[in-house]
Each structure stands twice: as C-alpha cells, then as structure tokens.
Write a structure and sequence with these properties.
Helix content is about 45%, strand content about 20%. It is of the alpha+beta class. Helix 5 runs antiparallel to helix 9 and helix 6 packs across helix 8.
C-alpha cells in the first residue's frame, strides 16, 4: 500500500503484519525474528511487540514474545458478526453422522483457507485441525471450491501470489493443470481431492452461498484405506452438496 493514500494507516498495517507471523510453527518469537519474518526494522518490531504486551495482546518472557488469548477476541468478533456459520453446525453433524466421517467448514483468506467449524468423525474424537487453523488452498477440496468461485481476474491474481509446492507426489503444482481443475469444479459443483495435501487422505467439498455468492465451503475427509475415490464421488459428493445447499437455504432465508 502507498503511504500517499490518505485512507491508509501504515502503523495499523504493520501491527497486523507482526500479529500474523505468530503461528503453530512460530508460537514464540524474538524481536529479531519478527523483524526478519515481516521485513520491518527491529525498532518498529520492538515498539509494536511492546505495545501488544502493554495492551494485553502479548506476553514477554526474557527476550521472546507470545500472543495471549485476548487475540481470540478478533476472531470472535468476526464469528459474532457473521452468525450464518451457526446454521451450519446441525447440518455438519448430520453429514458427519451419515458418512461417519469428519466434516469441516472453511472460508478463503488470501491464498489460504481458514477453518470456521469442525465436526469430528464418529469413529474418533481426535482432531488435528481446529477452528482458526490455516492451510494452503490449492491442495485442499475446501480451497478448490472457494478458488473456483472467484472471478477469473481474481484467479489470475491468485496464481501471481501463490507459491505452488508439492506436498505429496499427487499435488497439482502446474498452474495450467490447476486452473483446469478449478474449471472442472465450477462445472461439477464440487471438488474432490485424492492425497494432494496428505497421502492417504481423500476429501470432497461443495460451496455454501449467501445472496451474493459463495462465502464458504463444506467438506468431509476420509481415510483412503476405508473409501475409494469412486465411492467418495458417487456416494458422498451428493451428500456433501445436499448439506451445503441446506446451509445455504438457511442463510438466505434467515
């Protein structure tokens, strides 16, 4: 962003840059590490981290900083201002019970998906992904659905920004092939992923809409040893679409 824009506050942008470098990979960071990850000067990183500490968004131990649970208020504000996602829970549980697989709801943020809700498989209570977890969009069924819903110009922007890396031997990283896959999602009305993000895991997703268009995606994930890609496509894809459409209907008529 240009500092010449009178409606742009540079310091706020820098503050969010600092906040977003903290993650599961980087739960604690020093001033030097924050400066390196954000490209900001050490002095700027120091002032922002100390400000976060004074207002309760971070704690400091020795020379390292960690975000506090107060940061969750920002996410809660989003969820509270978007009550539509609450309509999804009963449908997600119904989908999970029908398929005996875990179901998830996510939205798109830049080149990543962000999980808004998760229902574990009735087979297990373990959950490796939680609300707020992020994954790259391109190798996930949720991400493919959300990317396919973008206007063509926005998809072009996405390909200029994304760093396509092979996470498994099956991951599509050729831009032309990935673009074709997105066009197929548009035509089919769902996305099916077979081991592209994690080997041995398959998933299928469908779009959730409001009156203006696609706002989220719903999916189920399955162990490849339990279900073939063909069964996932023939039996589960219609169920995922049905439940996504049911969530859409509630959103639109609320």
């Amino acid at each position: 962003m240009s500092r010449e824009d009178p409606d742009f506050i540079d310091s706020v942008d820098k503050a969010f840059q600092v906040m977003m470098v903290f993650s599961a990979e980087h739960p604690e960071l020093s001033i030097s590490q924050v400066a390196e990850l954000t490209g900001l000067t050490r002095a700027t990183a120091r002032r922002l981290l100390l400000t976060f500490t004074r207002v309760g968004f971070a704690t400091q131990q020795d020379r390292r900083f960690r975000l506090t649970s107060k940061v969750m208020r920002l996410g809660y504000g989003y969820l509270s201002a978007s009550p539509w996602w609450e309509h999804a829970e009963s449908h997600m549980r119904s989908l999970s019970n029908s398929t005996r697989e875990s179901s998830s709801l996510a939205t798109l943020d830049g080149t990543e998906i962000v999980y808004l809700a998760r229902v574990p498989s009735p087979r297990s209570v373990s959950m490796t992904l939680n609300i707020g977890s992020r994954l790259p969009a391109y190798p996930t069924s949720l991400g493919r659905v959300l990317l396919a819903a973008l206007p063509d110009a926005a998809i072009d922007d996405y390909f200029r920004e994304v760093d396509l890396k092979a996470l498994t031997p099956q991951t599509i990283i050729d831009p032309g092939e990935l673009r074709e896959a997105l066009m197929a999602v548009r035509e089919d009305g769902f996305a099916l992923i077979d081991g592209e993000r994690e080997e041995g895991v398959r998933s299928v997703a469908a779009p959730v809409r409001d009156r203006d268009g696609v706002i989220a995606a719903l999916n189920i994930s399955v162990n490849a040893a339990r279900m073939s890609a063909e069964e996932l496509r023939e039996r589960c894809a219609p169920l995922v679409r049905e439940h996504a459409d049911a969530i859409t209907a509630e959103i639109i008529h609320t």
